[in-house]
Amino acid sequence: MTDSLSEETLTPRAGIVLTGPTGAGKTDLSLRLADEFSAQGRPIEIVSADAVSIYRELEIGTAKPSREDRAHVRHHLIDIRSIADSAGYAPAYSAGEFLRDFLTLLPSLPDPALVVGGTAFYIDAIVRGLAETPPADPDMRERLMAEEAARAGAIFDRLTRLDPESACRIGPSNLQRLLRALEVCDRTGGKFSEQARRPPAIHPLIVVISPDRSDLYGAINERVRRMFDRGLVEETASLLGRFPPDLPAFSIIGYAEAARVVRGEMSRDAAVEETARRTRHLAKRQLTWWRNVRYENLTFMPGPGSPADILAKWKERGLCADT
What we know:
By secondary structure, the chain is an alpha/beta fold. The chain has 13 helices and six strands.
């Protein structure tokens, strides 16, 4: 990268959001981008927007940045919750909590604020703001969970009928978010996706890394294999010895399959195959969401992407002026 990143090149609250499907290489690219800024004398920090990396007990199955990477570039909002915090139907770390913590961090973050992760509702909270929504309704949640227990997928199907945009963004496996969306639809009479929102936190360039499908699926398959080779089953067995088995964390892709291996319900090879299949399906849903969402300054970039390409897009969109 040859362009100088002097103080004059950056808007007062410049921001870059680096996102895309799981397995697209966001972490590696974000570290290389941070190195580019550092080489120009502007060290930046990374804010994680990943709903799995928040858990301090989960390591192998999260693909979170390594401790060495976090020592090299300062990261925020990783390892901030225990899996025990996710008991019940309430999320361990809601979009509202993410937005609150991001706004607390924002004044101290160097420009540009770099947000990295694939959790769409976290990114949506800082880009579009959050709606003022009614409080939780435990009775309604109990009724909905009874429907889900009677027929798997019932609450996803219900939300798809009422608010297909939210259903697409949340996906069928995130029961906590599905419950919240249905709760808001019921209490307001409108769609969760159309609630009036507070002003956004930043106006960033949003870069969606979009690898070729065959490359992406190959990377996913390889990453899943490495996770199991590194001891995902053993990590899960240790966690099951310390925490209740019905915690939502044990329904996370990879940990759910590893738990079945621990219980003798599935072979290791079958667990690898099922984890890879579910992860590929998740990646497909994530790409579908990003292709349908309408954000200002959103751009798709073929994988694996490069820091120079991101900075070129940033300048092209007028978010970073020439020196």
